[in-house]
Amino acid sequence: MIEPKYYQIENMHCGSCVAKIEASLKDIPNINQASVNFADHSLMIIGSASDDLVINTLSQVGYRATLKTFTNNNENFNQETAFLGKSAQKFIVALIIGLLLMISDYIYPYIPALDAQYGQITWLVIGFISLFVMLFSGGDIFLGAWKTLLKGTANMDSLIALGTGAAWIYSMLVVLFYQYFPTIAHGMYFDTAVFIIALVKLGSWLEARARGKTSAAIQRLIGLQPKTAIVVQNKQETEIPITAIKAGMLIRIRPGAKIPVDGIIIEGESAIDQSMLTGEAMPVTKHVNDEVITGTLNKSGSFIFKATQVGGETTLAKIINLVKQAQNSKPQIGRLVDKIAAVFVPIVLAIAVSTAIIWYFVGPTPSYLYALITAITVLVIACPCALGLGTPMSLMVGIGKAAENGILIRNGNALQSAGELSTIVLDKTGTITKGLPEVTQMFSYHGFIAADILKLAAAAEKNSEHPLAEAIVKYANTLHLSDKNEDVIIISNFKNFPGKGVIADAANQTLIVGNKTFMLEHKINIEVATPDLKMITTDAATPAFIAIDGTLAGLIAIADPIKDDSKLAIQQLQQLGIEVLMLTGDHVDTAKVIAAQVGVNDFFAECLPDEKHTVIKNLQQKNKIVAMVGDGINDAPALAQANVGFAIGAGTDVAIESADVTLMANSLQGVVHAIRISKATMRNIKQNLFGAFIYNVIGIPIAAGVLYPFFGILLHPVIAAAAMAASSLTIVMNANRLRYLH
Ligand code: ADP
Ligand code: MG
Q: Are 383 and 160 in contact (CB under 8 A)?
């Protein structure tokens, strides 16, 4: 996987910037994907383009970007705090001056009139104080507007700069040439200009604060990794920083310590709390040769493990990477909004100009003043912040929330699809059942001796990784059948047939182990086993036949118990209105019993791995939006074909990268949870977009003065600025509601 790089974009003010930045990077070779997240002002680049190239390209279109590093967590944090501090400062200065001007102007007529003694000079001073505050607090807005103007385009900065600039210039003209203006037009708008800047800054301060909170999930994950570890070298134990740990080093874990890197226990054992990653509350007992994962917590035991994956290779690093990438991705709905935001600004400019023209010609006197004020109000009210924030804010909170529950959602599209599912196909083994099959019964035929057959079967199955194979080997081991060195069975010509079984040569005999289909394929007569087969399958166990040199020698029953909460989870899925199906390579009768036990109405049995993929495809052709839940490795083609592939129980696995949704815990409950979070997030996004849309649909006409002819209502530009800040705030608050989802 190519590691994505992240850049922080400093001077990004509105949703219309998103499409512009992405477009500027689109045609650069060595950039496969560029995606801007407006909620945290970050840019994600996948590709091999150099940092300089990216930063230069952005500066050409008017944006300052810096490379973001997540290892240097403190630095990012300091940057973010500094930014927050600066935004607050800018807001407060503009607010105080704006308030002072407003109070003295309207409430206490302390300031002399223009035609009074010292009137003109006083107002000139006020004008320049206002200009100073506008530039101090809103300098970046004017600069941004200027830069985009040079390129012949416009953005949100342009709207604000034009609105406040026009208010200031008009007021200055009145001060300088008051004789030529009627007295009624002497109402100056310096306070308005300053106040609008104050409110815009209030908006960006609130956004920056929310941004800090939305990345909390990432911060929490980063915080899981301890800063130091105790290394054992030549029987000496020394504490070193985790960055100095290399694969192969031996690390001592004391009671209560966090695991610093991924590895394998080589001495001792302990119960480990993995809940921070998997969401599973029960600690897991780990022995020698078991894997331990970075960031999990050792309970009371003490052990030594060998580091296997360090640095960016640890499971935790991969999870963090995935969550970051997902938060930066966009569901389809988000792309649509970016397109709208890009054309939004020119449309608003056109509306503002039309408004001014109409007021100028049909408005009351002084009509030029009404034309000016209504145009300014339209410019200020229509800033597309809310529109741009709606999708990424909710997505970041939703994906972060899921991550905290051990659910890794790969990207926005997966989230969108997971919220729209009509059908879920569950793999049986390891998904509905525990995936820890055990041999429960054994039968032998045609004079073969059970112990001998088992010994042979175990020798062959040692070469297979199938859970059934492991069950056979384990059973043989517990009976001490394969311990004695003198009769080790030599296996040759081993062949694995996925979904069927294995064939191998052992001690001059040809051995076939597998299911009924596999036996029939090799013309093995299994009639003698019919009653036993019937009994095994009605017990929900899986049959494994063993044939030696073309004759059926034995039959092993392997049972895999159903997970405690599978039935409940399936019920909950059905209550969400989703059709639940089961899919398995197992015997049809076994499948029937299991399906009945967990309440699944329909199932597909005896499917070969590639047939599983076809089952999904056929469902999709019936216009169903299909999810597949499987263990991520065996079921890879089916997981890939499904609209959403859920990999289950991948907590200790590297399979994180292969599925749309990875469930760290080994429970179907995670699927229910993931779907609930996805549905809630999509609903939240739609609410935000609807809100932003309605706000503009209602706000712009009122700002333009459509209510004036009927009710005499005109909005003051400051009210428009307040409405704009309020609309952003509403979106931030609505997105944050997702945090309290259960
Ligand atoms: P599932 O869908 O239950 O995960 P698979 O597709 O992996 O099943 O396998 C389907 C069937 O093929 C198993 O139920 C079993 O009967 C048979 N089979 C596959 N591999 C082996 C093996 N190594 N030994 C015995 N039987 C096997
Ligand atoms: Mg399977």
A: yes
In this structure, the number of other CB atoms found within 10 A of the CB of residue 283 comes to 17
Angle between helical axes of 332-362 and 385-404 (0-180°, round to 10):
160
Between the CA of 439 and the centroid of ligand 2 the distance, in Å, is 17
Angle at 656 (CA atoms; ends 653, 657), nearest 5 degrees? 130
Which pLDDT tens digit goes with each residue over 256-289?
999 999 999 999 999 999 888 877 778 889 999 9
Which atom of ligand 1 is the closest one to the Cα of 466? 23
Q: Which long-range contacts (CB under 8 A, 24 or more apart) does 162-165 make?
A: 162/349, 162/352, 162/379, 163/196, 163/375, 163/376, 163/377, 163/379, 163/380, 163/717, 164/134, 164/138, 164/192, 164/193, 164/196, 164/197, 164/376, 164/380, 165/193
- From the list 105, 140, 338, 427, the catalytic residue is 427
Tokens 């015997």, residue located: 587
| Helix, strand or coil, per DSSP, at residue 482 | coil
427 tagged catalytic: yes
Residues flanking ligand 1, CB < 6 Å? 427-429, 461, 464, 466, 468-469, 499-502, 513-515, 542, 544, 584-586, 609, 634
Query: Hey, which bits of 274-428 come out as E strands?
Result: 284-286, 291-292, 297-298, 302-309, 407-409, 423-427
How far is Cα 260 from Cα 93, in angstroms, rounded to an integer? 46
Residue 276 structure tokens: 């921070």
SS3 at position 47 = strand
Pocket probe mutation, ligand 1, options 428, 453, 462, 466, max atoms within 8 Å of Cβ: 466
Can you read off the two tokens belonging to residue 211? 């941004």
The atom number, within ligand 1, closest to the CA of 587 reads 14
What is d(CA 730, CA 734) in angstroms, rounded to the nearest whole number? 6
Question: pLDDT > 90: what percent of the chain?
Answer: 43
Give the pLDDT confidence of 673-698 residue by residue, as tens digits.
999 999 999 999 999 999 888 888 89
The CA 499 to ligand 1 mean position distance, Å, reads 5
